[in-house]
Design brief:
CATH class: Alpha Beta
Number of helices: 6
Number of domains: 1
Bound molecules: uracil
Largest sheet: 8 strands, mixed
CATH topology: Rossmann fold
Order of helices and strands: EHHEEEHEEEEEHEEHEEEH
Radius of gyration: 17 Å
Length: 212
């Protein structure tokens, strides 16, 4: 598994504002959106392209375009939805699938409650959107789901990651031969006893959409 903590002053600036307890939901949504577009730029570094010839007004030259099948973007409901627009802004031809996963707050185990994905992901590069890589249980289950359907590689894009979550993903996928990358704006200190990232930014879903 590869981990990329994006080290850029604009990313750090937006992440700091996201962490701030005084940041209201509309501002949080806008900042998350902008931050994801910056992360997406790094996350798509290995997106597959094919060579093409393009005619400029002056002559033909060589270029590239995104290869088919198009990449698949998979926000994990509900908080991952807050990252979708920022991602598809950079990858407008990507298709979008949905995975609803919920974490049991006592056992911290992830359960799938909704799926809307192609049955066959053979040859697809997948980009999973989940703002908080905490215990890693939800993300590991989502990534496994995509690999089982045939994804050729998976990149998880997270606003924040905890060392425990990265270690869990590494444990699950090490030696599996399944190419996995995590791209995040920050690697925080640890989890608290409730599985929240410290210092973190709180509950990403609640901060995006309010407490329900
Ligand atoms: N989910 C969140 O929204 N925040 C955390 O800190 C951990 C999991």
């Amino acid at each position: 598994m590869k981990t990329h903590v994006v080290d850029h002053p604009l990313v750090a600036h937006k992440l700091t504002a996201l962490r701030d307890v005084r940041t209201d939901s509309p501002t949080f949504r806008r900042l998350a959106d902008e931050l994801v577009t910056l992360l997406a730029y790094e996350a798509t570094r290995d997106v597959r392209v094919t060579d093409v010839t393009v005619d400029t007004p002056l002559m033909a030259t060589q270029g590239v375009r995104l290869a088919r099948p198009w990449p698949l973007v998979v926000p994990i409901l509900r908080a991952g939805l807050g990252m979708l627009d920022g991602m598809v802004r950079l990858l407008p031809t990507a298709e979008v699938g949905f995975l609803g996963m919920i974490r049991d707050e006592e056992t911290l185990q992830a359960e799938t409650y909704a799926t809307r994905l192609p049955d066959d992901l053979s040859g697809r590069q997948c980009y999973v959107l989940d703002p908080m890589l905490a215990t890693g249980g939800t993300l590991a289950a989502a990534i496994e789901f995509l690999f089982q359907r045939g994804a050729i590689d998976v990149t998880a894009i997270c606003l924040l990651a905890a060392p425990e979550g990265l270690a869990h993903l590494d444990d699950v996928f090490r030696g599996s031969g399944r190419p996995l990358k995590v791209v995040t704006a920050g690697l925080d200190e640890r989890l608290n006893e409730h599985g929240y990232i410290l210092p973190g930014l709180g509950d990403a879903g609640d901060r995006l959409y309010g407490v329900v």
